[in-house]
Amino acid sequence: MSIDMPLEEAPLSQLRQTPIDSVLHIIDEGLVHLPSYRELYYRWERQQWKAQDIDFSEDRKQWEAMPQDEREMRIYALSAFFQGEACVTDTLAPYVLAMPDEDMRIFLTTQLVDEARHTVFFERFFRDVMGVETGKIEESLAFARQYVNDDLKFILIDSLTEVAERIRQEPRNLAHLVEGVTLYHIIVEATMALAGQRNMLEIYRTNNLFPAFRGGFTAVARDESRHVVFGVKFLRDMIRRDNAHAHVIDAAIDTYAPIAIRGISPNPDMVPRILAMGGDPWVSPRYAMDSLAKKLRVIGLRISAKLPAIPPPPVSA
Ligand SMILES: [Fe+2]
Ligand SMILES: [Fe+2]
User: Between 160 and 24, where is the model more confident?
Assistant: First the structure.
């Protein structure tokens, strides 16, 4: 019998059985008592894991036995995450340089490494489980990109790149950095990624699907919990320093949130199929909007953006 480690230091073998909501709970606790930037850095030191340690052989067997139509259903979310992790890896460096305080910069350097690790983790899954052996990560990403919808491409590729470029050109202009953290940490991580991750991990866990992937992806979620708490704390601190930053955050939410919510909403073609399987096609966008509202409340703001209407959960017969 094995004794479970506290979630804080749980190894990958334990994380594959950990319900995702207990990981997401770390964020809720972090929002009640916002930790210092240094404490977030210390958490990173304690919460290490290795993408190279994962043995994907069981996942590969499951993928090989999976009917083609189910593979096609799974590939969209996996591709969005692979592309998303690569985009956040490629665009964070200017943020590190632009951070006004040293403890913020120290934390953000750890996030940069985390995002690189997440990208490698997905590249390994695509290669070792799905058999996407291109020899070059750029080519594996080009394969994944075919399955990413236009709204997600706009947020993950066009917008993240455009804001990062502005921060790079004017690192002393805090308005760019505030807009960037709103897009990166609040929209991409706290709204889109947490919702998608929760949905995927719940489906995989209840179906005992991809056990090795679950361990790694739950470790990714634990990393994301630090990133999201950092983003909330940073924006709250920036508003306290200068209330004008609140308008920058509001404007960024107005611009990006509706597109982000649309991007993680189900393709209309898939809705009848998900309903027929007894699922709720709108779990992710609903969770995403709640998550966004919760984070904004701690920052000291409310959602004023006009967001898409999401149907209530289907009543099962
Ligand atoms: Fe990540
Ligand atoms: Fe992240």
Answer: 160
Question: What would the pLDDT profile of 257-275 be if each residue is shown by its tens digit?
Answer: 999 999 999 888 888 888 8
| Residue 250 CB contacts under 8 Å (≥ 6 apart), including other chains | 301, 304
**Contact predicate 80/196, CB 8 Å:** yes
Average pLDDT of the residues in 5-21? 83
Q: In sequence order, what are the residues at sequence separation of 6 or more whose Cβ sits closer than 8 angstroms to the Cβ of residue 57? A: 212
* Angle, alpha carbons 230-231-236 (nearest 5°): 100
Q: Identify which of 186, 35, 152, 183 has the alpha carbon closest to the alpha carbon of residue 175.
A: 183
Asked if 16 and 214 touch (Cβ cutoff 8 Å), the reply is yes
CA–centroid distance, residue 72 to ligand 1 (Å): 23
Instruction: Say if residue 316's pLDDT is above 70.
Output: no
- Residue 31: C-alpha distances to residues 91, 127, 232 (Å): 25, 37, 8
Vertex 208: Cα angle to 203 and 209 (nearest 5): 70
Pair of tokens at residue 278: 């007894």
Would you call 288 helix, strand, or coil by DSSP? helix
Q: Any idea which fold 17-44+54-299 has?
A: Ribonucleotide Reductase, subunit A (1.10.620)
Do 20 and 171 contact (CB within 8 A), yes or no? Answer: no
Evaluate whether 16 touches 209 at the Cβ level (below 8 Å): no
DSSP-based three-state secondary structure for 234: helix
Distance 222 CA to ligand 1 centre (A): 10
Whether the Cβ atoms of residue 115 and residue 43 lie closer than 8 Å to each other: no
Ligand nearest to the CA of 225: 2
pLDDT of 301 strictly over 60:
yes
Interval between CA 316 and ligand 1 midpoint (Å): 34
* Sign, CA torsion 264/288/164/117: negative
Q: Give the integer Cα–Cα distance in Å for 317 and 309.
A: 24
The predicted-structure confidence for 84-102, as pLDDT tens digits, reads as follows 999 999 999 999 999 999 9
